[in-house]
Specification:
Radius of gyration: 21 Å
Number of strands: 0
Shape: rod-shaped
Strand content: under 5%
């Protein structure tokens, strides 16, 4: 915060800029976590499809159930 103030910003502007930077980083990190969960979801759906094509209904169901949790985890990362 001192470095921002040294650049000529008033203390309240410095605090505002610092909050904006923290919010930007948090948003980026949230998006990265959601993307990771969605990537896992997509992989599970591909595996479920492969299992269905091979007639392995039990495995397909297991992949779908795990994928459902990945999808829900991604959804929970994002604001409403």
């Amino acid at each position: 915060m001192q470095a921002i103030a040294e650049r000529g910003f008033a203390p309240d502007h410095a605090a505002f800029l610092l909050r904006l930077e923290h919010q930007r980083r948090a948003t980026h990190e949230t998006a990265e976590v959601a993307k990771a969960h969605l990537g896992a979801f997509a992989q599970r759906m591909r595996r479920a499809m492969d299992a269905l094509n091979q007639g392995q209904l039990g495995s397909a169901r297991a992949y779908l159930e795990i994928g459902q949790r990945d999808y829900q985890a991604a959804l929970n990362c994002l604001p409403r």
